[in-house]
Design goal:
heterodimer; A: 260 residues; mainly alpha; 85% helix; elongated; B: eight-stranded mixed β-sheet; 2 helices
């Protein structure tokens, strides 16, 4: 019984210590705000996590927009309310699916890569040799990756929303024959720039912070072996996805939850 | 050379994000720049607005001529005070213009329908429409029907 209790205590202390280390890494990396000299590092990372994710984002957004329009049409046509497809599509994408799906794809596509890269650097002693040379790896390696994530994910979310709505319009208007005027006007009537676009983008900013933080910390804290890196990469994807979905619920509750 | 391609593609990426933002703001949210100048404000009191919301349409003869900008309640008289912005471009409305709460389709949202009056004087910015008719609420009608059937 006592041993069991001790195990529990050890486990809890280890978890809390992990959180503490994660906070410290994040704080120390952000404290060294990249100066003008470090900008090329940032561009390189935005290229890695942002530009290279554009293809998967565009393809997924198009499919999701098209499917939403198709499903919405078949259901709404029963009430001859096909014109509402545009509004439903825009609201679902801007408020929920855009930020969340982009964040999940980003965690899988970019977060895992960041973790694996940093983990391998640690395993091959690149991080410690940097420290030997008097270069702070937190500023040179971690900070650009964090900032790149903060910048890239909201941009990817905006692209996702645009392509999704465009894909939905292609299916709804050009293929199923919803009246184009009613489709766009219904959307413009019901979508509010602050309430829908603004809050959706704010969500994606929160997700960007969470995913980047988890990804760089898992890499930095990885056990420096081949197995350790594989565990860290898996952890990044699993923790980010679960955190994004859980926090999305809380954010939705806070943002849209005033039921009166 | 390699750094150059990276920088160019990052620039293009950010530009694409900006374009997406503009597209979402203009085409999807439908913000129109610089409208506050060419509308004027009217108010109207209704007994029941039945869930009329801000941004609902104000229409005349089926054409949208304005938007609801605020819905407040006057607790003393138990009435709703609706503030609306009317487009300047439609010309002037006479003082006995009527306002009615209508429903779009069966399940659709509420909107305000204006019916023209015949008086010489015109409504100006800040005036109140006095000839109003509240929403048609099904529950009230059913309630009345039940009471009448009980009486007879």
């Amino acid at each position: 019984m006592l041993r069991w209790l001790r195990r529990l205590g050890q486990e809890a202390l280890a978890r809390i210590a992990t959180f503490g280390r994660a906070g410290e890494v994040c704080f120390r990396a952000l404290w060294g705000v990249p100066g003008w000299r470090d900008l090329p590092l940032l561009w390189k990372q935005i290229y890695q996590v942002g530009v290279l994710s554009v293809v998967i984002i565009v393809l997924s957004a198009f499919s999701i927009g098209a499917v939403l329009a198709l499903q919405g049409y078949t259901q709404l046509a029963r009430f001859s309310a096909e014109e509402s497809v545009g509004l439903g599509l825009a609201l679902v994408l801007l408020r929920e699916l855009g930020p969340v799906v982009t964040a999940l794809l980003f965690a899988g596509r970019a977060g895992s890569a960041v973790t694996a890269e940093i983990g391998l650097m640690k395993a091959t002693d690149q991080l410690s040799s940097m420290e030997m040379m008097g270069v702070d790896p937190l500023r040179r390696i971690i900070a650009p990756r964090l900032w790149a994530g903060f910048i890239a994910l909201p941009i990817l979310t905006l692209l996702f929303n645009m392509v999704g709505i465009w894909g939905g319009a292609l299916v709804g208007v050009d293929w199923l024959g919803i009246d184009a005027g009613a489709f766009w006007a219904g959307m413009q009537d019901g979508v509010d720039i602050g309430e829908d676009l603004g809050k959706g983008t704010a969500k994606s900013l929160v997700f960007a912070v969470i995913i980047s933080w988890i990804a760089v910390f898992e890499g930095y804290d990885a056990v420096p072996t081949a197995e350790g890196i594989s565990v860290a990469t898996t952890n990044t994807v699993v923790y980010s996805s679960v955190a994004v979905l859980a926090i999305d619920f809380i954010l939705t509750l806070v943002m849209y939850g005033d039921f009166n | 050379m390699r750094m150059r391609t990276i920088e160019i593609s990052v620039g293009a990426f950010m530009l694409a994000g900006l374009l997406a933002l503009v597209f979402l703001a203009v085409r999807v949210s439908g913000i129109n720049v610089g409208t506050p100048a060419d509308t004027y404000t009217l108010t109207a009191r209704f007994d029941d607005v039945a869930g009329l919301t801000v941004r609902a349409k104000v229409s005349m003869a089926g054409v949208v001529v304005g938007r609801v900008t605020a819905v407040n309640v006057d607790a003393e008289y138990g009435q709703a005070i609706v503030t609306m912005a009317i487009d300047q471009g439609i010309g002037r409305l006479s003082v006995d213009t009527g306002a009615k709460i209508l429903t779009e389709g069966i399940l659709g949202g509420r909107y305000i329908g204006l019916s023209p009056g015949g008086a010489e004087e015109h409504l100006v910015d800040g005036d109140e429409i006095t000839d109003t008719q509240g929403a048609f609420v099904l529950e009230n009608l059913i309630g009345e029907l039940v009471t009448r059937m009980g009486d007879s």
